Amino acid sequence: MRLSRRLLALPFAALLAAAPAAAQTQPWPSRPIEMVIGFPNSSGVGIYARKLADPLGRALGQPVVVNPRTGAGGNVASDFVAKARPDGYTILFGTAGTHAINQALYRRLNFNVLNDFTPIAHLGDVPNILVTSIQYRGQYASCLDVINDARARPGALNFGSTGNGASTHLAGVRFAKAANLDMVHVPFVGQAGVVTALLGGQIDLFFNQTGPAIPMINQGQVRGLAVTTRSRVPALPNVPTVAEACNLPGFESTTWYGIFGPAGMPEPIVRRLNEEIVKIISAPDFRQWLVQDQGIEPPTVTTPAQFRAVQEQDVARWAQVVRDAGATVD
């Protein structure tokens, strides 16, 4: 009787032993994927992430759920993903702010932007646009009006941002340095707070990203004074560049969006994600949305290795900008 029990137990034991192996060989993805963002849904990041998530989920056969984990200039989200399992079920919608600028700006980070992440796909280059309230700052009809006022009243003008280290912060820093202006930086937590302050007359200026700024300009809420690209943005053909409008030749301040995963992701999963994302954002309708609705320049690099090279270059470039600005965040 004792022998028969052992014999009966053998198939069950073999089944248990085989279960983990079966789980490991289960095709990816077999459950929903979490796309973490470090900024609110109303931000440029949030707008793009939600636009991308739906077609990406359809292509992969599993839902892609956008999950905001805001705070510390995107570092809360980055830290979460850096510590996640590298199994392809947790990815990050990152930016040049979170994955280049913050490495130099923050004195203490719980992660390394290069070593603790897997670059997956470059999503495009993102301009900023200098905007001001038409109702409360109507005297600023041009960028030169801003510069002349700032020089006449050193320290009197301020500019808001969506947080320390965001492109909306560093674009303002670069502008002030290039024009030799003394302006006060006022950081907010995300898009909603700084827009409310701008429209309410509490702040003077905002170097907003083009995505959320374009509808505000078209609705007549704010005036677009200058874009931070070398060439005008097709979505805003009547808005001059900073170089043109502000008499600052060569000025440029753009950042990028990209998808990252935790370090150590399996290469086949990285390749599949990259291929599907590149296919989606290269489609004519998506590309038109990027250019005409969001003012984003579609990516010119398509592979994870090329994206990694862009990131490495920007880590060095923005570190110099941060040092020149003397900006640090504890």
Explain briefly what this protein structure is:
This protein has about 325 residues and is of the alpha/beta class. It has helices spanning about 1-25, 45-60, 75-80, 95-105, 145-150, 165-180, 190-200, 210-220, 240-245, 265-280, 285-295, 305-325, and strands spanning about 35, 65-70, 90-95, 115-125, 130-135, 160, 185, 205-210, 220-225, 255-260.
Strands, count: 10
Distance between the termini: 70 Å
CATH architecture of the largest domain: 3-Layer(aba) Sandwich
Biggest beta-sheet profile: 5 strands, mixed
Which structural class do you get from the secondary structure elements? alpha/beta
Strand content: 15-25%
Rounded to an integer in angstroms, the radius of gyration calculated over CA atoms is 23 Å
CATH first level of the largest domain: which class?
A: Alpha Beta
The backbone outline, from C-alpha atoms, is: globular
Question: What are the defining features of this structure?
Answer:
5-stranded mixed β-sheet, alpha/beta, single chain, 330 residues, disordered N terminus, D-Maltodextrin-Binding Protein, domain 2, 12 helices, 46% helix
Descriptive overview:
The N and C termini lie far apart (70 Å). The protein folds into two domains: 165 residues, Bordetella uptake gene, domain 1 (D-Maltodextrin-Binding Protein, domain 2, 3-Layer(aba) Sandwich); 118 residues, D-Maltodextrin-Binding Protein, domain 2, CATH 3.40.190. 46% of the residues lie in helices and 18% in strands. β1, α2 and β2 form a beta-alpha-beta unit. It has a five-stranded mixed beta sheet, sandwiched between helices. A five-stranded mixed beta sheet has the order 7-6-8-5-9. α2 crosses α10. The N terminus is likely disordered. With 330 residues, it is α/β, with parallel strands linked by helices. The protein contains twelve helices and ten strands.
